[in-house]
Specification:
Blueprint (H helix, E strand, L loop, with lengths): L1 H15 L5 H22 L3 H21 L6 H14 L5 H6 L7 H4 L8 H9 L1 H9 L8 H14 L4 H21 L4 H26 L18 E3 L11 E3 L14 H9 L19 H4 L4 H27 L5 H16 L6 H6 L22 H9 L1 H10 L7 H14 L6 H22 L7 H19 L16
Antiparallel strand pairs: 1-2
Length: about 500
Amino acid sequence: MYLSISIVLSTLLAAAAPTPWPAEQEANKRAHERYLWITEQFKTGQSGDASIILWREWEATTNALTDILDKVERGAKIQAISLLIHMRPERAVGPLIKQITFDGSPVALRRGPLGNRPAAVALIDIGQPAVRQILHERLKFEASEEELKLFAAVVHGNYSGDAAVGRFHIEHVLADVRTQLGEGKLKPPLDRMLGTWSENLERVLAHYDAIERGELYPPSPLGNRTKNLKNVLCGTDSRSTKRGFCLAKRPASTARSEFPMNRRDLLAAALAGATCSSIAGSESSDAASEVSRLASADPSVQSAADQALVRQRRATVEQLLALAESPGQSLSEEIGRFHAIRLLGRHRASEAAPFLVDNILFAGPLPARTVGTIDALARFPAAVSLVEVGEPAVEEILYRRMTKHASELEFKLFAYVLWYHYAPHEEHDVGLIRMQRLLDRTRRRREAAGECTGAGESTQVMEQNLGSLIEMYQAITPDDPHDWPRVGHAQ
């Protein structure tokens, strides 16, 4: 009797379940085709060719999404920006900065006051590359007060875990500009540019402080970041009727492309619906071809393209991660694992940060010249990928991995990843201040734990590890090959 009742209930529930829309069914089908194709290519020894195809396709898609921002209507623009939030390409920073005041839909992103500024949210997710371009490039030119407030919000969103480090970053750039102004050796046009740059930095700093005080936008509390690095940071503004905003904290930094390709050709192929015929043997397999459908006047077509791109990216990353986690039983499988690890970095997959951190000692079987653009880390593909993933990788290293013991080689690799994360514009002092402040907070937590049995054990380990990491970081000489991490070195 009970079995009959359960059968009836399950039948009713199945009948009541909503049937997926055709667009969702098609997106799921394409994602599954992508999953099967990646598996087949990597397991049949074709990982090298497959990695080139996947990388070029990803690059074509992100380039096309970026270049259509000022060519499409409002609805398509919102969807294109939401896809860039998923993909986080550094190449999108400039166009997104131009769109920072674009009034989008709060419903689309559900992030309160910044929810109707989707470009600002995307820049926060991209992270350090966006912060650097704002502070070092965009602020050299005239900007409206609204733009300056949003620029401050982007910087603050990137440093919501420790706002003092963000303030130091702005002050660091401002001090350099003031030094150049004080020298008085520049001709009038450049001198005026420095004056504008200095004034904008001062205004951004003032807005940044206002955000931290909760007067402009509510500040984002640290919350449970150390327990779950993928938490969304939320805040509430008690002085206004606006809802608090939530900023997904997943910024990152990337190295240069290893497979350069003419961007104009890639864009033309993507917008024309061209395909990589090798992938699943059909046009539906090419993610880049979906970008042109976002510009359609039919909302259902836009939705189908959006879902297809999101699901195909997810399927690609999930399968690459599964392949990277599988220990190779042969040289071809080890090479496939190497390519999977490198593609996770090129796709800036924040989901892969924990795996990459835990497998940073994996030494690639390929010659160093095929690994990437960072010579010092050439033999360690996971380390190169961590640099490309950026901020999510840095958070994994500082907040999670430092709570466990590590070998000397691991410390050296972690230090190099952090060093290259802050290498553009030689802002290594920003990274050093960040680690020193985290060390100070950890030391205070350990002292507060007192003599409670086991209460401060992990904190003590973290304190010791951060101290070692800072020493390694300060001693790095990347131009000296003798200082580079080496396979078998004190593992």
